[in-house]
Recover the amino acids of this structure.
């Protein structure tokens, strides 16, 4: 049986068809990579010569770290499929690698009928080792479609410690039950199901869901008979119970292929979920970086209450006299079985017992409680990490004097339920595991608790800390050291305004800068602003002064199916094109249904810098991320760039003026022009303006109206669009 859908080669007819759909306008969709490195190596497995293709990103700098995107070809093909073939799955992979500056890798992995048997697995391990030896690798993302998607899942199940994200398009998760391609699979696995049943079981991701703690995106089709969707859907739905970073795109009318838009959405989900910071972990439950006051920047945890603590230059400064520094509401960790708690701390105090952080008012009486403290047990300058359950303790410590040198230090507690004894909870100091205190190795686990989180004291009362704290982050995963925060975020780009439309205060500015909105006729439901086109007021209560900033990023999430008339998403000033320094984003411009246009007015006399997407990019009734970035260091059309779902869009005609203009102090209108025309019909969420030129990796990766961290898309079946 031949998987004909995955042996296709480039052809003019297919290129023409793609261009007719407007897809080729996205840079490089119908363009093979210009520079390739076909790398041979001698396989450790059997001393045969094997190969993989490497394509370095534009402007590659060997001194900088890059993500690696490994693309696994389909049945009957080889390493050149993802390099040359023009189809939705492969084109989206090339585009995402180019847009995000990834090292693009396409291995043979025992072409043409691999199925990730022992030889292919060994080659993959060797290739990853070679890549890490030659390049500075930040994350390894593994992807594929059909056999490649199945193999991506298999390799991740076998070696989860090597994979930071996985995309499986029309893939398989259960080799035990699968009936197609059995001759090829038996040759790859070393025997039939009856001859080597253990190989079929160990290479079936379905049976190892606990190993998938990284971001995962899958697509599946109800009409797919080549690789029926049942096993991968069962795996993905199981993963969602413990992994908040899982994306399922199931289309009841889809066969054995995933189109460009759906493929790109899957890649974007994994790329962005893992790119929040240079070492972004799965499942961030809370992160207080003190750049936006006391707000939890993850959007998942509570704000902090404060009395007596100074927030200065993105750092919490505690003088030992603070009376309140704790979560406004309890932080519920009861659903977690794995946990990482980390922070940066600086102090020179050695003569007093000081609490750095404690979950609960007193861990001694709370099962699942934990804390960090300093100068305990008559050890000045030492840090302790303590966890209590059932009246028994698991305690680690640093050496005396480790903390008290007056420098910044990273401290982390990692709780890994898969381990036992002292290893279940480990203290890391500057990413180095520390020593267990005496016989305190309790591994009893009855669940973490739902309790107030206290910073710098016990219950805001005693053991008060003197020093500085920064970047307190809690993740629902047992992170390894390269997933820890690698640096303090005190120099993070300034958020000027951020409207999340939270149910408790839908018009509030979450940046802390008090740029509140006013409205009439807008409905807020589930943290989303819903506009019918009849709204009469939706704008800032006062002007916003952007003039202090040299660069600007304006981004939001939108969903609409309206295509009949131009609609304004956001505009600064009543007529941006008459107002140098002002900006706007609209949809359906110039009779282009479903397109997005955006940019800045750069000078008087209608001097503009605008980009525009192809038609029908956003008129599908699904959520899309849209953003404009003004970068004063660039020239021509590149000074202002429009992004749709993380992909840069082409220039709009001759509107490429790059005259330097100061940003304006003006009103900001949402969903209309000056509350009078071009009214928007649809939904908006998470409008965020940052005083810096962000790239796609710095954009928001989900809108806060979605259940935290998880995006579920099902088309043609039960509709649960985010």
């Amino acid at each position: 049986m031949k998987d004909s859908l995955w042996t296709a080669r480039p052809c003019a007819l297919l290129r023409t068809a793609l261009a007719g759909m407007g897809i080729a306008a996205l840079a490089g969709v119908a363009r093979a990579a210009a520079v390739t490195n076909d790398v041979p190596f001698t396989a450790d497995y059997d001393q045969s010569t094997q190969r993989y293709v490497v394509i370095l990103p534009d402007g590659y700098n060997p001194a900088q770290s890059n993500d690696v995107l490994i693309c696994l070809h389909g049945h009957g093909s080889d390493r050149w499929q993802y390099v040359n073939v023009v189809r939705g799955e492969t084109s989206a992979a090339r585009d995402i690698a180019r847009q995000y500056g990834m090292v693009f890798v396409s291995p043979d992995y025992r072409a043409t009928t691999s199925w990730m048997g022992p030889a292919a697995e060994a080659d993959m391990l060797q290739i990853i080792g070679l890549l890490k030896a030659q390049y500075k690798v930040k994350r390894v993302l593994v992807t594929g479609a059909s056999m490649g998607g199945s193999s991506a899942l298999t390799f991740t199940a076998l070696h989860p410690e090597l994979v930071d994200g996985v995309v499986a398009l029309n893939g398989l998760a259960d080799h035990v039950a699968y009936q197609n391609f059995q001759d090829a699979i038996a040759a790859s696995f070393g025997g039939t199901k009856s001859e080597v049943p253990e190989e079929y079981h160990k290479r079936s991701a379905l049976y190892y869901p606990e190993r998938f703690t990284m971001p995962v995106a899958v697509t599946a089709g109800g009409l797919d008979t080549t690789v029926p969707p049942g096993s991968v859907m069962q795996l993905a739905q199981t993963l969602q119970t413990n992994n908040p970073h899982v994306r399922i795109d199931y289309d009841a009318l889809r066969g054995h292929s995933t189109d460009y838009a759906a493929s790109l959405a899957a890649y974007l989900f994994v790329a962005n979920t893992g790119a929040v910071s240079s070492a972004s972990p799965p499942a961030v439950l809370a992160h207080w970086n003190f750049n936006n006051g006391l707000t939890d920047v993850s959007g998942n945890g509570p704000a902090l209450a404060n009395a007596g603590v100074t927030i200065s230059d993105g750092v919490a400064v505690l003088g030992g006299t603070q009376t309140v520094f704790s979560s406004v509401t309890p932080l519920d960790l009861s659903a977690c079985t794995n946990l990482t708690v980390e922070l940066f701390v600086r102090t020179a105090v050695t003569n007093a017992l000081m609490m750095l952080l404690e979950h609960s008012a007193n861990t001694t009486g709370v099962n699942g409680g934990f804390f960090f403290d300093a100068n305990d047990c008559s050890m000045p300058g030492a840090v302790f990490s303590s966890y209590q359950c059932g009246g028994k303790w698991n305690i680690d410590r640093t050496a005396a004097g480790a903390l008290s040198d007056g420098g910044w230090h990273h401290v982390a507690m990692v709780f890994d339920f898969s381990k036992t004894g002292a290893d279940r909870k480990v203290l890391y100091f500057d990413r180095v595991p520390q020593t267990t205190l005496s016989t305190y190795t309790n591994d009893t686990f009855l669940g973490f608790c739902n309790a107030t989180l206290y910073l710098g004291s016990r219950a805001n009362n005693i053991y008060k800390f003197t020093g500085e704290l920064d970047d307190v982050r809690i993740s629902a995963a047992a992170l390894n050291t390269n997933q820890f925060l690698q640096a303090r975020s005190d120099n993070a780009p300034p958020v000027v305004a951020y409207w999340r439309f939270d149910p408790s205060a839908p018009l509030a500015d979450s940046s802390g800068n008090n740029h509140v909105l006013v409205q009439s006729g807008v409905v807020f439901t589930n943290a989303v602003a819903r506009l019918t086109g009849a709204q009469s007021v939706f704008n800032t209560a006062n002007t916003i002064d952007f003039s202090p900033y040299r660069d600007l990023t304006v981004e939001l999430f939108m969903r609409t199916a309206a295509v009949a008339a131009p609609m304004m998403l956001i505009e600064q000033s009543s007529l941006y094109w008459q107002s140098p320094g002002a900006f706007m984003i609209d949809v359906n411009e110039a009779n282009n249904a479903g397109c997005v246009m955006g940019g800045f007015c750069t000078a008087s006399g209608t001097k503009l810098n605008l980009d525009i997407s192809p038609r029908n990019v956003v008129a599908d009734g699904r959520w899309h991320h849209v953003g404009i970035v003004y970068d004063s260091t660039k020239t021509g059309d590149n000074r202002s760039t429009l992004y749709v779902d993380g992909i840069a869009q082409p220039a709009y005609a001759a509107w490429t003026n790059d005259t330097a203009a100061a940003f304006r102090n003006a009103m900001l209108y949402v969903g209309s022009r000056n509350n009078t025309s071009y009214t928007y019909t649809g939904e908006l969420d998470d409008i965020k303006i940052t005083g810096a030129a962000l790239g796609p990796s710095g954009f928001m990766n989900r809108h806060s109206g979605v259940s935290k961290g998880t995006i579920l898309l099902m088309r043609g079946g039960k509709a649960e669009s985010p």
Notes: Residues 4-273 form a domain with the Rossmann fold fold (CATH 3.40.50.1820). The two ends are 38 Å apart (CA to CA). Residues 337 and 517 are 40 Å apart (CA to CA).
